[in-house]
Amino acid sequence: MAEVLVLVDHLDGENKKSTYELLTAARTVGEPSAVVVGPAGTAAGLAEGLRAHGAAKIYAAETDSAEFLTPQVSVLESLVEQVDPVAVLISASADGKEIAGRLAVRTGSALLADAVAVSPTGVTHSVFGGAYIAEAKANTGHPVITLRAGSVEIEQAEGAGAEETVAVPASGRSATVISREPIVGGDRPELTEASVVVAGGRGVGSADDFAIVEGLADVLGAAVGASRAAVDSGYYPHQFQVGQTGKTVSPQLYIALGISGAIQHRAGMQTSKTIIAVNKDSEAPIFEIADLGVVGDLFKVAPQLQEEIAKRKA
Amino acid sequence: MKIVVLVKQVPDTYSERQLSDSDHTLDRDATDAVLDEINERAVEAALQLKEGDGGDSTVTVVTMGPDRATDAIRKALSMGADAAVHLSDEALHGSDAVQTARALAKVLGTVEGFDLVLAGNEASDGRAAAVPAMVADVLGLPALTHAREIAIEGSTVRVKRETDDGVTELTAELPAVVSVGEKINEPRYPSFKGIMAAKKKPVTTLSLTDAGLDASEVGLANALSSVTSSQPKPPKSAGEKFEDEGDGGSKIAAYLVAQKLI
Ligand SMILES: Cc1cc2nc3c(=O)[nH]c(=O)nc-3n(C[C@H](O)[C@H](O)[C@H](O)COP(=O)(O)OP(=O)(O)OC[C@H]3O[C@@H](n4cnc5c(N)ncnc54)[C@H](O)[C@@H]3O)c2cc1C
Ligand SMILES: Nc1ncnc2c1ncn2[C@@H]1O[C@H](COP(=O)(O)O)[C@@H](O)[C@H]1O
């Protein structure tokens, strides 16, 4: 079977969940070869997980280069030339989108960005915040596909995972990394993976009062989200923003507290299975898409709901 | 310093955006077109760098888009940019990200001696979040993306890059391409004086040939990828709504139980 290159997404010596999603998706179009780019010793630590998710080969490109994303692009570029893969799969993260774009211009490949499903004939996209579903295909060999996190159900499969060392080609001009501060995830589930999200907007009124949103989230085992207005007002950190320019979430349950439901916010959450909104203003647009809407003060409704759920759990 | 800002006209995100039935491209007639908000921030960043420079720098905006993208150009000029270059040609319709990046790289080739190219990190319509890095790659320049802070120190640029994964500090020698994230600044409103002055600022319109491009390199028919079908998803409709009478929280809990969500 033809090879599919999968760029391994890893952090602190561990495969990210998105890597297993990529390997699962890759198996629908060919035989996955995992490509590991990282400092010396990285591949050895990741190999077991990669094999358990069907990697037939593991290309290890180890380098201490401080060049920003360029090693990933150059390694993939030389592998594309060498093995002529049926496709290259990369996570649709900020880094992944950039690596994919650069690779596509270098190899003259179609760029199929932010796919939610992959098949031998092409990909599926969800556009304008889920308002449209579109199918797309590549008109070139070795298309470069980025896959949106959380869109594929991970399946295990044994792969031979034979390791092969590959060189990191010298590159031209690149940005250099001076320092990195990865975001440390808290105890709550990851926003894009959570099955329940409780989000707060400007109506929450202050950073301190976001404790109300967090309190409700915690009894539900939920992730916390925020509107852009809440983020801009400094109530909650940027990485929790949901919407057009924030994260796209599609949980089983989305609870919006003090969020008006502007179209750009809806673009990031309107595909949630069940939506519950609490807002003082009965005309707030969030009610147009809420399965259950409560016109009321979030400072009264949310604590009562939290208490009721806690009671049931006890 | 010579600064170029890549700007794009997009459908207003405040309106319902649509894909056209005929070729599945963006239906640009269905919605109002505006300068993408993220590009207002890129223009603002350029103007702040110019102001920090004692005004010695020049800011040129570059766009590839249909005729009416001149409105987006005017907006950038009225904010304070000095000049503009507009690549406009029927043949560009339906170009994909790879073609766009190559075309923009050609247009940048017509702007002599630029030091810094600024762009938005992600366009609100296509959301490829890749074009700036792709343009940089075509030109062999470093790409410093998703900037939350930009500092120029002599001939180097330093950027604080913020994404969902964290903060990374990057540096590179100029010339370089920098894309900005939405937390970089609050764009200024054009003043009346700015709007009047914009009318007199030079806008160079380029055809494909002017930019050194061939029709076979751009456009829907030559795209490296094609959208084969598109379908609107029925919008979610409203369910029940009630006024809180002191038992709103309990009622939600009862609903969650009934729906087996808790
Ligand atoms: C290009 C672009 C991209 C954007 N991207 C995003 C994005 O990614 N995410 C995003 O969220 N927005 C985004 N926006 C901004 C968006 O247009 C709105 O401004 C934003 O979503 C508003 O946030 P909000 O609902 O929290 O605030 P508001 O619109 O101010 O709404 C606050 C709501 O809280 C209610 N309220 C106040 N007090 C209480 C109370 N005690 N109890 C109950 N309800 C109360 C009010 O009735 C009101 O409805 C974008 C805008 C643009 C132009
Ligand atoms: N047609 C275009 N003309 C000018 N700049 C563009 C164009 N397309 C993309 N860009 C720039 O690239 C940024 C990111 O766009 P994208 O990669 O398409 O999400 C935009 O904010 C612009 O700065």
UniProtKB/TrEMBL annotation, chain A:
<keyword id="KW-0274">FAD</keyword>
<comment type="subunit">
    <text>Heterodimer of an alpha and a beta subunit.</text>
</comment>
<comment type="function">
    <text>The electron transfer flavoprotein serves as a specific electron acceptor for other dehydrogenases. It transfers the electrons to the main respiratory chain via ETF-ubiquinone oxidoreductase (ETF dehydrogenase).</text>
</comment>
<feature type="binding site">
    <location>
        <begin position="258"/>
        <end position="265"/>
    </location>
    <ligand>
        <name>FAD</name>
    </ligand>
</feature>
<dbReference type="InterPro" id="IPR014730">
    <property type="entry name" value="ETF_a/b_N"/>
</dbReference>
<feature type="binding site">
    <location>
        <position position="279"/>
    </location>
    <ligand>
        <name>FAD</name>
    </ligand>
</feature>
<keyword id="KW-0285">Flavoprotein</keyword>
<dbReference type="InterPro" id="IPR029035">
    <property type="entry name" value="DHS-like_NAD/FAD-binding_dom"/>
</dbReference>
<feature type="binding site">
    <location>
        <begin position="241"/>
        <end position="245"/>
    </location>
    <ligand>
        <name>FAD</name>
    </ligand>
</feature>
<dbReference type="GO" id="GO:0050660">
    <property type="term" value="F:flavin adenine dinucleotide binding"/>
</dbReference>
<dbReference type="InterPro" id="IPR001308">
    <property type="entry name" value="ETF_a/FixB"/>
</dbReference>
<keyword id="KW-0813">Transport</keyword>
<keyword id="KW-0249">Electron transport</keyword>
<dbReference type="InterPro" id="IPR018206">
    <property type="entry name" value="ETF_asu_C_CS"/>
</dbReference>
<dbReference type="InterPro" id="IPR014729">
    <property type="entry name" value="Rossmann-like_a/b/a_fold"/>
</dbReference>
<dbReference type="Pfam" id="PF01012">
    <property type="entry name" value="ETF"/>
</dbReference>
<feature type="binding site">
    <location>
        <position position="202"/>
    </location>
    <ligand>
        <name>FAD</name>
    </ligand>
</feature>
<dbReference type="InterPro" id="IPR014731">
    <property type="entry name" value="ETF_asu_C"/>
</dbReference>
<dbReference type="GO" id="GO:0033539">
    <property type="term" value="P:fatty acid beta-oxidation using acyl-CoA dehydrogenase"/>
</dbReference>
<feature type="domain" description="Electron transfer flavoprotein alpha/beta-subunit N-terminal">
    <location>
        <begin position="4"/>
        <end position="181"/>
    </location>
</feature>
<protein>
    <submittedName>
        <fullName>Electron transfer flavoprotein subunit alpha</fullName>
    </submittedName>
</protein>
<dbReference type="GO" id="GO:0009055">
    <property type="term" value="F:electron transfer activity"/>
</dbReference>
TrEMBL record, chain B:
<protein>
    <recommendedName>
        <fullName>Electron transfer flavoprotein subunit beta</fullName>
    </recommendedName>
</protein>
<keyword id="KW-0249">Electron transport</keyword>
<dbReference type="GO" id="GO:0005829">
    <property type="term" value="C:cytosol"/>
</dbReference>
<dbReference type="InterPro" id="IPR012255">
    <property type="entry name" value="ETF_b"/>
</dbReference>
<comment type="function">
    <text>The electron transfer flavoprotein serves as a specific electron acceptor for other dehydrogenases. It transfers the electrons to the main respiratory chain via ETF-ubiquinone oxidoreductase (ETF dehydrogenase).</text>
</comment>
<dbReference type="InterPro" id="IPR033948">
    <property type="entry name" value="ETF_beta_N"/>
</dbReference>
<dbReference type="GO" id="GO:0009055">
    <property type="term" value="F:electron transfer activity"/>
</dbReference>
<comment type="similarity">
    <text>Belongs to the ETF beta-subunit/FixA family.</text>
</comment>
<dbReference type="InterPro" id="IPR014729">
    <property type="entry name" value="Rossmann-like_a/b/a_fold"/>
</dbReference>
<dbReference type="InterPro" id="IPR014730">
    <property type="entry name" value="ETF_a/b_N"/>
</dbReference>
<feature type="region of interest" description="Disordered">
    <location>
        <begin position="225"/>
        <end position="247"/>
    </location>
</feature>
<dbReference type="Pfam" id="PF01012">
    <property type="entry name" value="ETF"/>
</dbReference>
<keyword id="KW-0813">Transport</keyword>
<feature type="domain" description="Electron transfer flavoprotein alpha/beta-subunit N-terminal">
    <location>
        <begin position="23"/>
        <end position="215"/>
    </location>
</feature>
<comment type="subunit">
    <text>Heterodimer of an alpha and a beta subunit.</text>
</comment>
